Amino acid sequence: YQKWHMAYNHYGDSEVDMGKYDTPCETAFAVGCVMLLRGEVLRKIGGFINDYFIYWEEPDWCLRAKYLGYSTWYEPASIVYHNTRAEVRGKESPLFIYMHFRNFLIFAKYHYKGAQRIQFWFVLPFHILKRWKIMSSSGNKVAVKAMFNGLVDYFKGYRGKELLKERGLIIK
Q1: Rounded CA gap, 172 and 149, in Å?
Q2: What's the predicted TM-score (pTM) here?
């Protein structure tokens, strides 16, 4: 589902399982490690866009599929073990924060049009401020720097893995 700041949350994320999610239903996106799809869909839509590298590529792909008439579904009978957020809020790694903010802007550029684009640019400063407060109060100064670097690098046109090594975010 879409949050107030227009980013997406995993279906049922951070909720206690009380049976609320026992019925298959359509959802905004699927996590790439648990997607099951037909080859024809992949051939028609194509793979992930290299602009992202990591984070935001799945919502982008699922929206591109939706534009072509496909839908993304949640299947409660499936069991998958995958740690998607091992970090404590405010203590996230600089790589996660950098990629999240830079790629969120890339996603918005591709998908938010008209009034939705205006709404995005209106709420984005509040989202940045909220995340800055959380990371600052947690003493995560390197993540704060990574967030601002991600925002600046988006406007400089950096995409994919470009500049990550120079930013000290990827060793290889």
Answers
A1: 19
A2: 0.87
